[in-house]
Predict the structure.
Amino acid sequence: MGDLMFFTVAVIVYLFLTAYLGYYGYRKTRNALDYLVAGRDVHPVVMAVSYGATFISTSAIIGFGGVAAMMGMGLLWLTALNIIVGIIVAFIFFGKRTRKMGHNLEAHTFPELLGKRYQSPFIQNFSGLIIFVFMPLYAAAVLIGAARFLESTFPGVLDYNVALLIYALVICAYVFAGGIKGVMYTDALQGAIMFVGMIVLVVLTYVQLGGIVPAHQALVAMAAQVPEKLTAQGHLGWTRMPALGSPLWWTLVSTIVMGVGIGVLAQPQLAVRFMTVKSDKEINRGVMAGGIFILVMTGAAYLVGALSNVYFFNHPGFGKIALAAAGGNVDKVIPLFINSAMPRWFVTIFMLTLLSAAMSTSSSQFHTMGTAIGRDFIEPVFFKGKGQQYTVILTKSGILVGVILTVLLGAKLPTSIIAIATAIFFGLCASTFLPAYSGALFFKWITKTGAIASMLAGFTVTALWFLFVHKKEAEALGLCQALFNRPTLAVMPWTVVDPVLIALPFSFIVVIVVSLFTQKPSDQHLEKCFKHFK
Amino acid sequence: MFGIDDPQVWLAYLACILSAGFCVVYGIINWNKGDE
């Protein structure tokens, strides 16, 4: 009871600070430029931490931490890729060009940047629609995780649906009022809490297990404890990569490392962060904060997940590996480890860490959904480019509709949808947007027709792969079973190969081939797009 | 290395540290560059 009281007080203080920062964002928002891209004048650390906190949701800590408990430390390749692609490539190569081009073309959103670069209203409308239709799925996944967490934290006090509603309303309030400034200021607070929580977690874990090298050696010595079922799928131990070409190897390398690691580049809610700073200097400074933040957030989660096996196996109360201790549910490994191995005072800090991780991701999703339907679809389609004075009200209306859609999905969808919905959104964004986005920033010869063809090809191939080939999603979606009376049309290894490895290269080929045979944009337009590019 | 037996895994551990280290060095070197 004392713990719950302590946590309740901590949550009230946290919500008060969040409300204050949301109000501060509201006071600093005067026009559409402020509401959509924070007046292009955000502090570099706020930008970098907001980027990281948006990227890292509860599922990255709990879900992937649990996956690391099952698969082992091979997941650290995802941390490496998150830093190399998600920070170094994203900030230094994509971020600077996104900022400059966004400034040159006066673009306020990711779809608007693509639409103006290719002089194609269709690209802006189509991108906005894709985001608005599929992001509620991803947002619902985060919402479900947060509501389940709140429900289990306040047992008997908070019903799941009530938790869902309170959580969504609190975030909706500061996103609606403060726009992206409200989102980014609160992200900075939430990111700071997450950073402290994860550093303490990894330090306490290593201390608990006798230090870095002894902890790793103890995990090496546990290789014989891998269950037969996992060994049959290619598991060789928690400090080793799965057997090359095995189902577990394909899942780890294609879905987890490549799917998430590359998919981050074309996430609209992350790309827009680069348009919120005034010069490359802020992006240069953001690289440092972003790199450290992602290392701590993901590295700590995956290391602790894998090392929890040592704790559970050596603990007289458990005496078995982490997955078995958690009853076979990977999502329960990290919470069980926190409650069993960590001091009571840290449990509260970790709960705030999880709440911060969920809220920082949800707030950006709500804002992006609002801009996608308001700024990128309704305004250009129904106001024919003459609705600038309605931008903020349309975006706010879009945020409300997006939140309602997300809450309805959150109330209806099963908890098992979290990983699937996240994978679908990341996969769709990567294959649909990345080739056209890369072409827009780096290659002047990529054409409007090439970009449209690649977006349609990437979207179609990804959708078909999820529906009929990739076993995990095809089984869950059920269309293949209904049409062909079998869960998937493919055989191993294709059933575990992530669509990003198929649709993304195909989409890149399409953008190149079609651009070679179609009309180039005018030199005058390209000069405007690439002004100040080195 | 680091008490890990599989080179593919300790390389990942090292890659994480080195890539984060690169971010820090890059940030320091370019701290005042980019607003020309």
Q: What stands out?
A: The mean pLDDT of chain A is 88. Chain A is about 75% helix and 0% strand.
